[in-house]
Amino acid sequence: MTRRQRRLALIAAGLGVLALSAALVLNALKDSIVFFNSPTDVAEKHIRPGTRMRLGGLVAQGSVMRGDGLTVRFEVTDGNHALGVTYQGALPDLFREGQGVVAEGTLDAAGEFKADSVLAKHDERYMPKEVADALKRQGHWKAPEAGTAAVPLAAAKSGERAP
Q: How much is the pLDDT for 68?
């Protein structure tokens, strides 16, 4: 082999090792790079209890129940499935029924989601892209009209308007 051929072979081997390592890293992280799972995803993926994840969707109407102290139980829904969430702590000021929410925590053996943090949308016109995409896939999304905020289809059917 000439010197040039050896150099090209070394570069090709290096690129091959780099591509293989990138593929292995991306494969290992494929479940971790999901921004959140919807309740339907949780039901379909059969996620094991104790697995740390993010759960996203809408807070189901009439599901918020406040307990002793700062304990709150509510349901997160994507229109097809709902998953009960228990949270101990102060909720964001914008947290309310019918609004988008992302909760981070673990699923327990009884199928209840134990959240250790809850994130609500930050203003009336914003819904996280992932939540909006999940609602669109489920058919529970109505596109915003000019000059109005985006609202879930259930709210649009009931005549509610975004502020």
A: 85
* Pair (105, 126) in one structural domain: yes
CA distances from 61 to 11, 43, 110, 121 (A): 60, 21, 22, 17
Q: Which 3 state secondary structure label does DSSP give 121?
A: coil
CATH number at residue 153: 2.40.50.140
Task: Retrieve residue 81's tokens.
Answer: 């499935």
C-alpha 75/C-alpha 145 separation (Å) is 28
User: Based on the domain organization, do 53 and 13 belong to the same domain?
Assistant: no
List the domain range (segments joined by +) for residue 77.
39-157
SS3 153: helix
- Summarised one tens digit per residue, pLDDT across range 20-74 is 999 999 888 876 666 788 898 888 888 888 888 889 988 999 999 998 888 999 9
Taking the C-alpha atoms of residue 145 and residue 124, their distance in angstroms, rounded to an integer, is: 14
Q: Are residues 18 and 46 in the same domain?
A: no
Which of 125, 124, 129 has its CA nearest to residue 102? Answer: 129
Output the average pLDDT for the chain. Answer: 81
Burial bucket for residue 54 (CB in 10 Å: 0-12, 13-18, 19+): middle
Tally the domains of the chain: 2
